[in-house]
Write a structure and sequence with these properties.
7-stranded mixed beta sheet; 7 helices; Rossmann fold; alpha/beta; 196 residues; globular; 9 strands
């Protein structure tokens, strides 16, 4: 079985074993705290965007938050169990981040928060490329830098240091005509914002 299907099965298991996985408010609480540079800028971008894509949307808690700020979210997650937790008012798709079923430049904003550390190395470049392909204006990444074990399974299969993530994403972004707007480290997470 290839690595992508292994990860899909892993997340189906994780999301179906515990209803609250993917529904944590830690990220939303961080985003509400505008004393954090990334949060302040993310909120500004959301408020100036009409439609956005949440890659690895989990149970949709960030989708609820961006909707509250006035931006209509669409979500995609590899786990059907995860998307079933999302508010039915939102469009969600079961799929992989390395093959997004959306048009070029379809969204004003694409965000991939606490996502890339879950993505197998085999599809890392494609996943990054896809995040830029479907966005018109902004792409935001937040990538955890440490291990996360849930029910005895390592969930973060792709750990790197922050500068390595920055270099990898910048190389793809710059090639596609995007520029880094923010590089921010907090709470063992690297946050990156890109603007076309």
């Amino acid at each position: 079985m290839d690595k992508v299907n292994q990860e899909k099965l892993k997340y189906e298991g994780v999301h179906s074993r515990t209803f609250d996985y993917g529904l944590g408010l830690r990220q939303v609480n961080d985003l509400k705290n505008e004393s954090y540079d990334f949060s302040k800028r993310f909120n500004e971008i959301v408020k100036q965007s009409d439609i956005c894509l949440d890659i690895a949307c989990g149970g949709g808690t960030i989708m609820d938050y961006v909707d509250y700020l006035g931006c209509t979210p669409t979500g995609i997650d590899i786990s059907e169990s995860a998307t079933k937790k999302v508010d039915k008012a939102y469009t969600t798709v079961v799929g992989s981040c390395h093959q997004l079923p959306f048009k070029d430049n379809q969204f004003d904003l694409v965000y991939f928060l606490d996502g890339m550390e879950h993505i197998p190395l085999e599809i890392e470049s494609e996943a990054i490329h896809e995040s830029f392909r479907v966005s018109k204006n902004f792409v935001c990444h937040a990538i955890a830098l440490e291990s996360s074990v849930h029910f005895g399974e390592e969930l973060h299969c792709n750990l790197k240091d922050p500068e390595e993530w920055r270099e990898i994403i910048n190389k793809i972004a710059n090639k596609l005509g995007w520029n880094e707007e923010m590089y921010y480290l907090r709470n063992n997470t690297v946050h990156l914002i890109y603007k076309r």
